[in-house]
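All the exercises in this workshop are built on plain-text protein records. There is nothing in a record beyond a sequence line and a structure line. A learned vocabulary of local backbone shapes supplies the integers on the structure line. The question running through the whole workshop is how a given chain folds. Here is such a record, shown just as it appears in the course material:

***
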Amino acid sequence: MKSTLLFAGTVDHALELTPCLTQPALSPDGGEIAFVANGDIWAVSSGGGDAHLLVSGEADESRPLYSPDGKRLAFISDRSGDGDIQVLDLASGKLERITWDDGFDNLSA
């Protein structure tokens, strides 16, 4: 995934930017890596290739973590205003919010 930033005015060329890919999480079978880029969660084969978007929106998502069976992906989202934990069912794409408190929740393996 590449982004191009164009400057107006006297600059007559485009500056290529490399996105910041952070917080990688390896799936239990080692076949996929989930990561955060620009507040969205993406996944890519651990062997390389094109990444695909898993979770996107106005909110910032962070700390992806696969379930032990690899069927779900938990992450922290500020879509509710706080840092609540959401779970994505990878087969159906269904999102479920699982924490409802006023504080910022944390995920750890």
Q: What stands out?
A: The chain has one domain: 21-97. Residues 1-12 have pLDDT under 50 and may be disordered.
